[in-house]
Specification:
With about 300 residues, the chain is an alpha+beta fold. It contains three helices and 17 strands. The longest helix is centred in the N-terminal third of the chain and has 32 residues.
Length: about 300
């Protein structure tokens, strides 16, 4: 290629580059002029579920698309803090969904917290009744003209830490001994470590002593479990079998130890005051005690 041809070719390439740049700039400017930035705002954050194993938080971000065309679903990075310490983080995105043209969409950001994970990370919270939290959100859109734009939001609140009650077997007491009947109380002691009262919705039990079945049934009108206290629940029953009365009287008067197996189920209901949460599911606690004891009088 001679010098003249090389010079012409360079001018053609240079003109092409300039034209491409102008077209690109024009396209970009046209896109910027046609595109309207979405309106993004924090809508709400609510504790939507609380159990004795953990809690669930649901944040909602409102996205308004003012354009005449659909735009991509935003990518939302979130970070959950407990007492100002980072605990867990994640990203919410959906490549298949779009924000419809000229419409408003609520985008959900769910966060699940397990108490065991909290206690393993923050030992100081094991005896706490609640914890302070903060949720930080960073939202952006995979749209070229606003790719670097980030919307940041924060919300602070408090979540309760629920603890299951503990149940202890406190012994067997004989009352009103006679030749035709003996009345008994088996005492369960229930410690409620929470800041709210708990109602006994159902209590079933069975008792076997020295391999012989003594009683089984349900306890109506069991006392309420007061917050931060131990409550005794008597399981009352009677025995009027003559053969059993004779052997049981011998055990009682002799003061000998007996082996026992006591089982059942305790169903508890509760309403947590002071937190904007739905009703907490009933807690069912299977009970199984065994050992040796004396039958007191």
């Amino acid at each position: 290629m001679d010098g003249n041809k090389k010079s012409v070719w360079k001018r053609v390439v240079a003109a092409g580059v300039v034209l491409w740049a102008m077209l690109g700039l024009t396209t970009c400017e046209t896109l910027r002029a046609a595109f309207k930035e979405p309106s993004v705002s924090f809508n709400s954050a609510q504790l939507v579920k609380i159990t004795f194993t953990g809690t669930e938080l649901l944040c909602k971000v409102q996205v308004k698309n003012p354009n005449a065309f659909n735009i991509p679903f935003p990518e939302i990075g979130w970070e959950f803090f407990i007492d100002n310490n980072s605990f867990v983080k994640g990203v919410v995105k959906n490549d298949q969904q779009r924000i419809n043209a000229r419409s408003t969409t609520l985008v959900d950001v769910p966060v699940s917290v397990k108490y065991l994970d909290v206690f393993n990370t923050f030992k100081s919270l094991i005896d706490s009744d609640q914890a302070n939290y903060k949720i930080a959100l960073a939202l952006k859109f995979p749209i070229p003209v606003i790719r670097e734009r980030v919307w940041n939001f924060e919300h602070k609140g408090v979540f309760p830490i629920l603890k299951p009650p503990t149940i202890s077997f406190k012994g067997i007491t004989a009352k009103n001994l006679s030749l035709s009947r003996i009345d008994f109380d088996v005492i369960w002691e229930v410690e409620n470590p929470n800041i709210f009262n708990m109602n006994v919705k159902d209590l079933s039990f069975s008792l076997a002593v020295n391999g012989s079945s003594w009683a089984n049934g349900r306890v109506p009108n069991a006392p309420q479990l007061t917050a931060k206290r131990k409550t005794e629940i008597p399981l009352s029953f009677s025995i009027n079998s003559l053969s059993m009365i004779t052997s049981i009287t011998s055990i009682i008067t002799g003061g000998t130890n007996v082996s026992y197996v006591c089982g059942g189920n305790l169903s508890l209901g509760m309403v947590l005051q002071g937190y904007n949460v739905p009703e907490i599911p009933d807690l069912n606690l299977p009970v199984n005690f065994s050992g040796t004891t004396k039958v007191a009088r």
